[in-house]
Amino acid sequence: MHPSETPYFEAIRPNYAEEFHCIGPACEDTCCQGWSVPIDQAAWAKYQAVPPGPLRTLLDVSVLRTPEKDDSEGRAASALFAQMRMTPENACPLHGADGLCRIHAALGEAFLPTTCATYPRILRSFAGRQEMALSLSCPEAARLVLLNPKLLSDAAPEQAPESWQKFGFNSDLPFEIGNPLLLYAQPIRNSVLTLVQNRNYPLWQRMFLLGIFCRRLDAINGGELRRAIPAFLNDFEATIAVGGLRAELQTVPADHQRQLDLVLQMAGMLLHRSNVRPRFVACIEAFTAGIGNGPGATLESLTAQYGAAYDRYFAPFLRREPHILENYLINTIFRCQFPFGRDGLKPDARPSLGREFALLTSQFALIKGLLIGVAGFHGEHFAPEHVVHTVQTASKHFEHHPEFLTQAQMLLTECQMDGARGLAILLRNVETHSPHQPMAEKRHPGPQPGMNPRRGSRSPEPGLNFEEAEEIAPLV
Ligand code: SF4
User: Fold this and answer.
1) What letter would DSSP give residue 381?
2) DSSP code at position 110
3) How far is CA 145 from the centre of its chain?
4) Three-class SS of residue 419?
5) Pocket of ligand 1 (CB under 6 A)
6) Cis peptide before 120, with omega less than 30 degrees from 0?
7) Per-residue confidence (pLDDT) for residue 232, from 0 to 100
């Protein structure tokens, strides 16, 4: 089916990414360091035509042809046609001492490899429409997304601008629907975005409701629940619009200890990678100092400090800046094609919205957990720039670490935290301390390679199971 044959729904289209401009030499964590730089075939061909001279010589020794590789369908993988040979410091050799790219400066933007010309923009085709999100691994993109009090503009035009063609968008988008769920891809995502921005519910409750929404759609799609998708979407939105589930959601249990345990394990997974950047180490050190890690720390002592950091610094900050984590979610929804996933919109796809929700929750819980610790570290001075730094450095590690989300999901499964109850534990924080109660003294962080403080006995698991969680939403 072609998009023109799908029912008409007004799309919520992001246009914030169009405002992005690289700040070049002023960037505090340039993308020209720490990563490999793939060179596509078109860029490589252009470099062969550069006249002899110092730049051509540098290109010749730096741009290395990669052995011919085919993708799973036997087509040449042109984005990996060649690769930049990085310096021993793992920097791009074309990145000049003045902070400028020598290719860009001497030859112009048209000579940049596609990866460099596009980054940090993430180009997506969603239900036949072109969209752009941003990778928050770029500090300027993180600022643009996180600090905007109104990220989604009411006036965003329906169609993508012509200028996007330079990023290699194909205007004739294939969109074949092999799954009935995808017929409603646009209104489903509209419901997701409307829910995430509904401040009548605390953010953790919006996420919890999002989990129910995803599992219900999976059940409808799998035939376990006999409802028409449009009727379900209408009922769900109507129930949410009147705040109908707020009282029931207060019964969802909180468990800071298990939440922190999972955050520590996920952060440890990232730290065990090679090529961990000093900015990320600094971020983890601030986090661990903020929850009082050090000799003698136990999971109980860390949990107490984590709760205090939440009460005293993070929760008040979120009340002042409610858009920051919302914007993180909105950009992730566009970046990951949530709730269908990167491959979930392909013709023969069988998307699992519940699985996508678990992946979204693990990213969100990691970011939120790190921020709570960082807030504890900075105390009264915790500010938006600390959020930008934390989100950017963490994103730089896991957005470009394809196995991370899979590993995080395996961890959730192993810990039996991938059901409604476990995910709720990851999402919910409660203010438990008096705002005037002093925090325990911060300890020196020290290196945290294992992220495994001594654990005390674990209290029995409280609260809901999947069915009970679903029952709190009888109206939808
Ligand atoms: S990380 Fe972003 S702002 Fe920094 S150099 Fe790269 S694109 Fe520019």
Assistant:
1) G
2) G
3) 12
4) coil
5) 22-24, 27, 30-31, 119-120, 138, 140
6) yes
7) 93
pLDDT value for 72: 53
3-state SS class at 128: coil
**Ligand 1 geometric centre to CA of 15 (Å):** 19
Element (H, E) at 279: helix 278-290
DSSP 25-50: GG-SS-TTBSS--EE-HHHHHHHHTS
Q: Identify the residue whose C-alpha is closest to ligand 1 atom 8.
A: 22
pLDDT band of residue 59 (cuts 50, 70, 90) is very high
Distance between CA atoms of residues 45 and 55, nearest Å? 15
Cα-to-centroid distance, 445 and ligand 1 (Å): 30
DSSP characters for 233-270? HHHHHHHHHTTTTHHHHTTS---HHHHHHHHHHHHHHH
Let me know: does 340 contact 254? Beta carbons within 8 Å.
no
> How many residues are listed for the chain in this entry?
476
Q: What percent of the chain has pLDDT over 90?
A: 54
Amino acid in position 243: G
Question: CA 358 to CA 207: how far, in whole Å?
Answer: 10
Tell me what pLDDT residue 159 has: 63
45 Cα to the center of ligand 1, angstroms: 25
pLDDT at 443 over 60: no
Q: Which atom of ligand 1 is nearest to the CA of 23?
A: 3
d(CA 428, CA 450): 25
Cα(333)–Cα(340) distance, rounded to whole angstroms? 10
Domain borders along the chain are: 32-118, 249-471
> Where residue 450 falls among pLDDT bands split at 50, 70, 90?
very low
Banded pLDDT at 436 (limits 50, 70, 90): very low
Report the atom number in ligand 1 closest to the C-alpha of 27.
4
Distance 145 CA to ligand 1 centre (A): 14
| Ligand 1 mutation pick, 21, 27, 143, max ligand atoms within 8 A of CB | 27
Structural tokens at position 8? 């008409």
Provide the pLDDT confidence category of residue 169 given band limits of 50, 70 and 90. Answer: low
Phi (first) and psi of residue 299, to 5 degrees:
-60, -35
Residue of minimum CA distance from atom 6 in ligand 1: 31
At 168 the three-state DSSP class reads coil
Mutate to test the pocket of ligand 1, among 28, 119, 134, 400 (most ligand atoms within 8 A of CB): 119
Six-digit token string for 399: 């957005």
The number of angstroms, rounded, from the C-alpha of 193 to the middle of its chain's C-alpha atoms is 15
Q: Tokens in use for 257?
A: 């200890």
